[in-house]
Design goal:
seven-stranded parallel β-barrel; globular
Length: about 140
């Protein structure tokens, strides 16, 4: 899609793929197996719902997850903040995040540049951000 805002609510998909040049993308209470989305300019927001594998690439815009369950999350962001709230158990994920210019906060502990922890479960969170803050909380 070239431009526009998309608000998708209460839908179930095995796979969602797409490229959005400009606009916001919102998923509310959705059930998605595999998500692979790229945006050039705009925010990505997921509220509620269940996902299996998420891969996001954002050139400019914020990425937010609130009360979403997922197995694997992979985000590449050039410019923008990344916020993940409402995880059931943050310790169950292997977390590997890096931010070239900005702060990193995981579970209330703040660091600069990068953070890594081995999880107790099989889930993964991988984030690479050039400029912006990363915040991950239960």
């Amino acid at each position: 899609m070239n431009a526009g805002d998309f608000d998708i609510t209460g839908m179930s998909f095995d796979k969602v793929t797409g490229v959005l040049d400009a606009g916001d993308l919102q998923f509310n209470n959705c059930f998605i197996g595999q998500m692979d989305v790229e945006t050039d300019a705009g925010n990505i927001e997921c509220t509620g719902g269940q996902y299996t594998d998420i891969r996001l690439n954002s050139d400019a815009g914020n990425v937010e997850f609130d009360d979403v369950s997922f197995e694997n999350l992979d985000i590449e962001a050039s410019f923008g903040n990344i916020e993940i709230d409402g995880l059931d158990d943050i310790r169950s994920y292997t977390i590997d995040v890096s931010c070239d210019a900005g702060s990193v906060e995981v579970g209330g502990s703040e660091s600069f540049g990068s953070y890594h922890s081995e999880g107790t479960g099989s889930g993964t969170i991988t984030i690479d951000c050039n400029a912006g803050s990363i915040e991950i909380n239960n």
